[in-house]
Amino acid sequence: MKVPFRLNSMVVAFGLAGSMLAGAAQAQNIKIGVVIPATGPLTQYGDMVKEGVDTALEQINAAGGVNGNKLEAVIVDDACEPKQGPVAANRVVNAKIHYVVGPVCSGAAIAAAPIYNNEGVVVVTPSATSPALTEGKNFTSIFRTIGRDDQQGPFAAKFISQNVKPKKVAVLHDKQSYGQGIATAVRDTLKADGVNVALFEGINAGDSDYSAVITKLKSAGVDFVYYGGYHPEMGLLLRQSAEQGLKVRIMGPEGVGNPEINAIAGPAVEGMLVTLPADFASNPKNAAIVKAFKDKKRDPSGSFQMGSYTAVQVIADSIKAVGNDGAKVAKHLHTATFDTPLGKLAWDAKGDLKSYDFQVFSWHKDGSKSAATK
Question: How far apart are CA 126 and CA 50, in angstroms?
């Protein structure tokens, strides 16, 4: 009698273990890589993305997760460096992570995209705006929840020509994929609109003294400057221009829209023009999401928070619809329309949004911003 009893006990034990393993497998977290600059001079952009991701994950998981599974964020640092982009991508692949929010910066995203696409990792970037990320690549798994530079650049140029109406413009850039790309789009649109672009020149990112280019701006007699790049250089351009008596208004893309610019530029930041995603936090339809941000002392009105939240949402919605399979999720993103905090979103065959709403804001020395009319 003892032998059958022991056998039956073993059967029961294996049955229980099997049930427990099955339950564990069923409840396994779905990992989302959050590829951001966790180190380097652009970490605040990473913080913006993380705030959006964290808020979305908390809300989705509190509501039961995705098909019974919880979502889990895995932070991967690429420092916004093109050379680190592929390194970060390989970390994601080796960790068997099938979904990514990020990369944040265009240069790193462009360098990493072939790896993600070849390995079937679904990437939704809330901030990489360079057309080179998707144009002519035939990628199937690269998406973004922000408009491209060739949407943002012409939008900025039209505002300059129609609202500011300068006589002579200088267009500067940081010689990098993002900055030079958007500056080129601004220059070309201004020229097409008959605006005199007297200077188109690159500066070195990371320099501390831009006196030479400011002297060129003064000699050229420009009355307006557009700069394509990020906030550290823009802050110095603003401050040093004021110190050297160059009294012109300066405009930049969303890459300069960082609260840290106030500490760099000081009072000279007042009146800086910047193109940013529309203020989705002010939309009454997003009141509950805005509250979720504010309850955790996060900023829902920053440049990339709502786009990051949306990136998580569309990944989660797609997994709910077609299952936890990267190829199926990518196909679903290409074909479906999503109701998101950014409005109704749909992607074209390249993974770019079919439409996107940019606005022009005037930046103030107290860190606030207001809609700009001229």
Answer: 11
On whether both 55 and 132 belong to a single domain, the answer is yes
Q: Which CATH number does the domain housing residue 266 bear? A: 3.40.50.2300
What is the rounded end-to-end Cα distance, in angstroms, of the chain? 93
User: What's the Cα-to-Cα distance from 250 to each of 97, 234, 272, 365, rounded to whole Å?
Assistant: 42, 9, 6, 14
pLDDT tens-place values along the chain, 374 residues long: 333 333 333 333 334 344 444 444 446 899 999 999 999 999 999 999 999 999 999 999 999 999 999 999 999 999 999 999 999 999 999 999 999 999 999 999 999 999 999 999 999 999 999 999 999 999 999 999 999 989 999 999 999 999 999 999 999 999 998 999 999 999 999 999 999 999 999 999 999 999 999 999 999 999 999 999 999 999 999 999 999 999 999 999 999 998 899 999 999 999 999 999 888 999 999 999 999 999 999 999 888 999 999 999 999 999 999 999 999 999 999 999 999 999 999 999 999 999 898 899 999 999 889 999 88
Measured in residues, the chain has a length of 374
β-bridge pairing 369-371 and 358-363: antiparallel
> Which SS3 state, helix, strand or coil, does residue 59 take?
helix
Give the residue from 87, 98, 95, 88 showing the smallest Cα distance to 124: 98
User: Domain boundary residue among 271, 292, 313?
Assistant: 271
Cα–Cα nearest to 296, from 43, 44, 59: 59
pTM for the full predicted model: 0.82
Place of tokens 């050297």: 244
Strands 122-125 and 358-363: unpaired
* CA-based torsion, 53, 56, 59, 60: positive or negative: negative
Query: Is residue 99 domain-shared with residue 200, that is, in the same domain?
Result: no
Q: Specify the 3-state DSSP secondary structure of 363.
A: strand
In this structure, is the dihedral angle defined by the CA atoms of residues 367, 162, 217 and 131, taken in order, positive or negative? positive
Range of the domain at 315: 30-146+281-357
